[in-house]
Design brief:
Ribosomal Protein S8, Chain: A, domain 1; Dihydrodipicolinate Reductase, domain 2; 3 domains; four-stranded mixed β-sheet
Length: about 350
């Protein structure tokens, strides 16, 4: 049996190489051998959330695998045909359930029937897209491409306790519609109705969230924007601060997860700094959503969007997509701060 070799040490050398390769392996029915998995990380190989991503990919298509175990830096993956249905995946740590979901969501979005998947683990850990991002930003774009998804949350799970549990129902489509997101999100001088501030708080004083909101309003001059502290119940304490900007097509979410020893004001400054970078560029899509959209436009066959300077994470994803699909996503600099990402 022949395998396409995917080097996990390329580019940023993290888990995104693994996840993108798994998704496209199933989509193309191409056998792959992943080597040097997460070689760019201090702790290399498959951690719990990466192992769960492989096992999830394996289950939805009946793949034949080799070397799939904790700590493995080399695996083989031979996909079968995608099967829709009911699935349940538990990470067992505060690792990102959203990243596990995003490994299998694109191919289930093109399956022949609907699927219901239940996830258990982390939902907001600060090192990956959160469940808030998935629900508010990513899924609305996917809906515009023809795929309806419904999220039901039982409980959130902050790092390090984890313990989140949620479910997604995916109603697939025969083919993804191309998207073109190139206009700046809104007129920031007058559209405060499109801007909002949200602080999720669990087992911590609500005043932390209010301080985050107050500081961000001061930095961004968003006094007229809606701000709210949302108290949630989770297995462990946590805080997620989110600045949101709505456009006609989607929501851009700028999120910073609070950390022990980091003040509320510092959290707010980090989030506001990302917003200011985005506003100055006059981009349509913020950096993290841009990275997640690459696979969608590749599967759709075409698409484009404008964003801020692509990260190493993004350029690595472009390279993996090119290797597996033979399609080259172009990154073109338009100004000193604005870039166009396209697949023609």
């Amino acid at each position: 049996m022949k395998y396409m070799i995917i080097d996990g040490s390329q580019g940023e050398g993290g888990g995104q190489v693994l996840r993108t390769a798994l998704t496209l392996s199933i989509f193309t029915q191409q056998n792959i051998e992943l080597i040097n998995i997460r070689a760019g990380r201090k702790k290399t190989g498959l951690l719990r959330q990466h192992l769960t991503s492989v096992l999830a990919a394996q289950e939805i298509c009946g793949a034949i695998t080799e070397g799939v175990e904790l700590g493995s830096t080399r695996i083989r993956f031979s996909p079968g045909k995608v099967k829709s249905g009911n699935f349940q995946f538990a990470i067992g740590t505060a690792g990102s359930t959203v990243l596990v979901c995003q490994t299998i969501l694109p191919v289930l979005a093109l399956a022949k029937g609907s699927s219901t998947i239940t996830f258990e683990g982390g939902t907001h850990n600060g090192m990956s897209p959160s469940l808030s991002f998935l629900e508010q930003s990513f899924l609305p774009v996917l809906k515009s491409m023809g795929v309806n998804c419904n999220v039901r949350i039982s409980t959130l799970g902050f790092y390090p306790a984890g313990g989140g549990k949620w479910q997604i129902v995916i109603e697939p489509t025969q083919a993804l519609k191309p998207i073109h997101l190139t206009d700046a999100g809104c007129d920031f001088a007058s559209d405060m109705d499109n801007c909002s501030l949200n602080a999720l708080i669990s087992l911590l004083p609500a005043s932390i969230g209010q301080r985050e909101i107050t500081k961000a309003q001061e930095i961004l001059d968003w006094q007229d924007a809606l701000g709210q502290v949302q108290e949630v119940t989770t297995p462990g304490p946590g805080n997620s601060f989110q600045l949101c900007i709505d456009s006609k097509t989607h929501r851009n979410v700028f999120e910073v997860v609070g950390e022990l020893g980091v003040s509320a004001e510092r959290v707010a400054k980090r989030a506001a700094g990302r917003v200011n970078k985005y506003i100055y560029a006059q981009a349509a899509v913020e950096e993290h959503l841009a990275d997640q959209l690459l696979l969608l436009i590749a599967l759709a066959g075409s698409g484009s969007f404008t964003t801020t300077k692509p990260s190493l994470h993004t350029s690595t994803n472009v390279d993996v997509i090119k290797q597996l699909l033979g399609k080259e996503i172009l990154l073109k600099q338009l100004t000193d701060t604005l870039w166009r990402v396209s697949l023609e």
